[in-house]
Amino acid sequence: MTKQFAVIGNPIEQSRSPELHHAFAEKLGITLHYSKRLAALDGFEASVRNFFEDGGVGMNVTVPFKEQAFALCDVLTERAKTAKAVNTLWMQNGALHGDNTDGQGLVDAIRALDWPLEKTRILILGAGGATRGVIYPLVQAGVKEITIANRTLERAVQLVEDLHDAVAPAQLNVMALDQLAGDFDLVINATSASLSGDALQLPAALRFNYAYEMAYGKASSFLEQAEQRGVPSTDGFGMLVGQAIEAFSIWHGVKPQLKDFLSKSS
Predict the structure, then answer these.
(1) Which residues are annotated binding-site positions for NADP(+)?
(2) What is the mean predicted confidence (pLDDT) over 7-29?
(3) What is the rounded distance in angstroms from the CA atom of residue 76 to the CA atom of residue 186?
(4) pTM exceeds 0.85
(5) With 90 as the cut, is the pLDDT of residue 198 above it?
(6) Residue among 3, 27, 66, 119 flagged as catalytic
């Protein structure tokens, strides 16, 4: 019987997870079926329970259910605990396990670009869930210092306080988004501002060597500004593929090579 996998969210039509997982499986000679599941906003838990009771093996979770998935799990990885959000589920010995592969997906995508991470200084724009999910894996990858810039400074301060024990090896700082300045190896945009009319302006006092936009598939003023400076930059497609590969490796015990799948037509 073909093993069943799925991605659950609301909305869900935009998800590229089925195409990615089927591509990984084809490359590695694995037989599986991966589908999209639309859950009612108040029906997430029931949908997850039904999926696994029907013999489902693994499930990815997308917006807006990652926090609910975190609360539902019996066993959590360290990176899921730090992120307080789960995007990968599987059943093991009767217990629902949860992980967050977003941050490792980002790390792997940056490494695939041959951009440095060891002993670097990184600025992350935004203090929401996307930022929370990537800090622990970045620190594990050897990043020396991470500064979080946010419109509401208090939210960035709270995030740093929440993560202090989990990421003790690295130095965490905060900065107001309207006071951007300083020298950084890499700037990561985890806000939606550069995709909206409320475009984020990067001042001349902010200097950086690389730029990573977490979003993908849309025009980004953040990337446009990086390109105007002649700074190497990319959107978040590599992160999307990377987090999917990490989930695939959890379920199947084998890890596809990220560079094999970085063409956006894959």
Answers:
(1) 78, 126-130, 150-155, 236
(2) 96
(3) 30
(4) yes
(5) no
(6) 66
